[in-house]
Amino acid sequence: MEDDNLIVEEPISEYGNLDVNKSYTYLDYLKWQFEERVELIKGRIFKMSPAPNRRHQTLLSNIHIAFDTVFSKHPCNYYFAPFDVRLPIPNKKKPNTVVQPDFCVICDDSKLDDAGCIGAPDLIVEILSPNNQKHDLATKFSLYEELGVKEYWVVFPNERMVVVYTLVNGIYVGSKPFIDEAEPISSSLFPDLKIELKEVFRGVD
User: Fold this and answer.
1) Residue 90 exposed, middle or buried by CB count within 10 Å (0-12, 13-18, 19+)
2) How far apart are CA 177 and CA 154, in angstroms?
3) CA angle 170, 125, 168 (to 5 degrees)
4) pLDDT tens for each residue of 78-99
5) Nearest Cα to Cα of residue 187 among 83, 73, 130, 105
6) C-alpha span between 60 and 124 (Å, rounded)
7) Cα separation of 129 and 135, whole Å?
8) Domains of the chain, with CATH numbers?
9) Digit-coded pLDDT (tens) for 15-36
10) Distance of alpha carbon 54 from alpha carbon 60, whole angstroms
11) Nearest Cα residue to 43 out of 24, 30, 66, 21
12) Distance between CA atoms of 67 and 47, rounded to whole angstroms?
């Protein structure tokens, strides 16, 4: 005999069926089966840019190659999008924040599971997209700072520039912009990580 009180929620297959004014949880996020890429920040839905363009993908590939040179000999792990990073918000009973950084480095293996990462990565790289700059420069900047991402690299494709933010006493302190193609981008968190700007922008017109 069927239980008339048992309600089975169907997966959501269309982005348009979401209520952008509603607060969602990570469990809700897992039920979404539409093509659009979204992030969930403190329960709010943020629609990501459409499929990254060729320039974005070239930058991500260059960063991957450069980081691999260092981290192939390092105990830390690195991942690139799409890769779910769940960021627990203090005083929230149900996880309600999941982001997909372009690139992240995680040194604590206990934060990794089959679904991705739970907890703040040590380093995150975001490549700005024309339609999503405010999201990366404001919303995610504040989120990463609040939840303890130790280092945050922001890549500006149009300006051919990189800025590195380091967490100092809970506040991000920005480097001078790296704009000289021969100057290595350096990390205070990983002293052996030095990447020439021209390598990041190799093949990007």
Assistant:
1) exposed
2) 10
3) 15
4) 999 899 999 988 777 788 899 9
5) 105
6) 12
7) 9
8) 54-200 (3.90.1570.10)
9) 888 888 899 999 999 999 888 8
10) 10
11) 24
12) 28
